[in-house]
Amino acid sequence: MVPGSEDPYANLREQLHRAYLLKTTLGLLDWDQQVNLPAGSAALRSQQSALLATLHHEAAVSSRLREALEAAGRSTPGTDDDRAAVVRLARIDYERATRLTPAFVREKTEHQNRSYHAWARARETNDFGSFAPFLERTLEFAREEAVLQGWRERPYDYHIDLHDPGLDAATVESLFNRLKGPLLELAGKLLGAPIDIDDTLFHGFPAHDQERFALRVTEKLGFDYRRGRLDRSLHPFCSGDGHDTRMTTRFDPDNPLDSLFSAIHETGHGLYGQGLPLDEAATPLGEPVGMAIHESQSRLWENQVGRGRPFWRYFSPLYRETFPEQLRHIPDEELYRAINRVSLNPIRVDSDEVTYNLHILLRFELEKALFDGRIQVNELPREWNRLSESLIGVKPKNDAEGVLQDIHWSGGAFGYFPSYTLGNMIAAQLWYRVREEIPALEEGFARGNFQPLLQWLRDNIHRHGRRYDTGELVKRVTGNPISPDFLLRYLEERYLPLHR
Ligand code: ZN
User: Fold this and answer.
1) Could you tell me the distance, in angstroms and rounded to a whole number, from the CA of residue 456 to the centre of ligand 1?
2) Is 67 a residue of the active site?
3) 161 lies in a domain?
4) Rounded to whole angstroms, what are the CA distances from 143 to 41, 99, 160, 216, 412?
5) Distance in Å, CA 364 to ligand 1 centroid
6) Is 325 a member of any domain?
7) Which domain does 403 fall in, by range?
8) Any domain includes 1
9) pLDDT digits (tens, 9 = 90+) for 243-299
10) Which own/partner pairs from 380-384 qualify as long-range (CB within 8 Å, at least 24 positions apart)?
11) Angle, to 10 degrees, between the axis of helix 380-387 and the axis of helix 356-372?
């Protein structure tokens, strides 16, 4: 068959593939910027990225893609689920991309660049006032985008749906309200019986040994290093897709647990990427559903698996083999308690998995209030500090430690924070489900066998790509809608016995 002619569906795939190649190349440039790029080379990189972003946008809104979509839509028989799903989802993407004018995209991108630098400066100098005008403009862009996309009346819902298809603020609010009371009660109990650990014991873990151990752990969990890498960056992340997955972590000689759990967390993201259908990589069936499902994967491996006793029954001897001197004075039980210590922290990313969720409740409250117009940008620091005290129980020393701590709002990523706690809920929900189906799962972990969990996630989550919405997928796999009950139960079962 002549390429791009007879078979409308093959033609559609070809158009999608072109956009996919541009998008993944752009992603690689971004990965390189965060991992390798010399500081003096940033100017050229920003031009290269801008050109590729333009080419990608052109491919995503091209008339050839539109025609391919129309033709494939006419010819796709309703019985072929895969084809119908690809056409349906690709049309949503196409329409979303075309509703944003090139001028809007350009102005927003330029503003985001300036806003990022303004935020980084403001955080360094602890000066929210200098960042506030940028954040106001960012919020305007977010509202304008919602209007362009046809969500004029529900701008915050638009941004939530963008990160987690099918969810909205009312659903998130009702889940968070059910979580809040019991979570605060649990956090109060745990913080009332704190675990004392001598942090100076975790000292002098050479970066190259940490890296060696992290590679060993992540490979054992199932990460395929023939089509992926683990590198170092300031902030850990995972990018790329199943054909080429790029994870990063950082190695602090005096904070080895942070480094290790960052690596395991990113591995959870990476395993999801590697488990998506490879031959659908260029279509929506080869893409992740959204951020909540993505986070459910990273957190399941990091927390339920990586912070559990069976995991350490297997890895403790190997950890000690790698760091015989450093771990000599830390018995296994002490190590386990250090890994699962709950304590108050004003910083989200440094928080334990219990109080972490309180940080998310705070950000969700503020985002809602911003979009409802109940508070203005210049009132954010005051509101942040008030909520931080009443909800988390800790008052930030200053704005750098408070409202300026996260990068998200500087880039206009509203509606993203809820995904973290939704991800925690879903992870716990999957955890109870998979152990019902595979009762000996954790006994396997203790012997170094993590394959059954990975295979279960492959079969139940990964292989579907974007076929189902977030809530639909959870319901399908677990039999229940998204619920906070499993997270609460899991946190109580793991943490209460440790904090007596
Ligand atoms: Zn993550």
Assistant:
1) 20
2) no
3) no
4) 35, 14, 13, 46, 10
5) 18
6) yes
7) 169-499
8) no
9) 999 999 999 999 999 999 999 999 999 999 999 999 999 999 999 999 999 999 999
10) 380/128, 380/132, 380/135, 381/128
11) 140
